[in-house]
Amino acid sequence: MKTRVADLDFELLIPYEQLEKRIREIAKQIGEDFEGRSPIIAGILTGSFLFVADLVKNLDIPVEVTFTKLASYFGGTASTRKIRDDFDLTIDIKGRHLILVEDIVDTGNTLHYLVDKLRVREPATITVCTLLLKPNAIEVSIEELKYVGFEIDNQFVVGYGLDYREQGRSLMGIYQRVG
Ligand code: XMP
Ligand code: MG
């Protein structure tokens, strides 16, 4: 299935049914790993908003949900490696189990920045969950990365929360750039 977002062409890479299935598996795993605890789920906006929603709907442990907002692409199709910190977590994370939820890990710079920033607030643990990972793009390895939905090629993707020039976030599936 093909679609156009702003001035670029995309084709379906991961249909929503596959995302749903994988998200249920991840939620089950998180539920087992954090059994008896009440972690804070911290979504990294904007791209993760649908993933966070579907993930928490499938969790059978009590969680708090909060968000932080970072930006690094600024309307293009490649990471600028400059991070703009738009807004911070509002929950005190000291002594808490923190699960950071990201849409996609590309170079790893965004998460590296965020984990470094949050570590000094002394959470009990920091764990990272990402829907997508581009393993061939990683420049900084993230040891906190434990849950990965899908590994994909270095191609630019949109849909299911991810955007190109703020468009395409509502596509129900992950679409990759063609051409
Ligand atoms: P880094 O390089 O810091 O990048 O790991 C992570 C952030 O960059 C955005 N990103 C993308 N956004 N399609 C997008 O719409 C992509 O293919 C893509 N790759 C990276 C994303 O916001 C992520 O948080
Ligand atoms: Mg993001």
In short:
The chain is α/β, with parallel strands linked by helices.
List its traits:
single chain, 179 residues, alpha/beta, Rossmann fold, 6-stranded mixed beta sheet, 4-stranded antiparallel beta sheet, 3 helices, 10 strands, 21% helix, binds xanthosine-5'-monophosphate, binds magnesium ion
Topology (SSEs and partners):
Elements: E1 2-5, E2 8-15, H1 16-33, E3 40-45, H2 49-57, E4 64-71, E5 84-87, E6 97-105, H3 109-119, E7 125-133, E8 145-151, E9 157-158, E10 173-178
This protein binds xanthosine-5'-monophosphate and magnesium ion.
The site of xanthosine-5'-monophosphate has 18 residues, from strand 6, helix 3 and strand 9.
Outline the structure in words.
With 179 residues, the protein is α/β, with parallel strands linked by helices. The protein has one domain: Rossmann fold (3-Layer(aba) Sandwich), CATH 3.40.50.2020. It is 21% helix and 35% strand. It is built from 3 helices and 10 strands, in the order E-E-H-E-H-E-E-E-H-E-E-E-E. The chain has helices at 16-33, 49-57, 109-119; strands spanning 2-5, 8-15, 40-45, 64-71, 84-87, 97-105, 125-133, 145-151, 157-158, 173-178. The protein has a 6-stranded mixed beta sheet with strand order 5-4-3-6-7-8, sandwiched between helices. Helix 2 (49-57) links the parallel strand 3 (40-45) and strand 4. Helix 1 crosses helix 2. The protein is globular, with a radius of gyration of 16 Å. Bound molecules: xanthosine-5'-monophosphate and magnesium ion. Xanthosine-5'-monophosphate binds next to strand 6, helix 3 and strand 9.
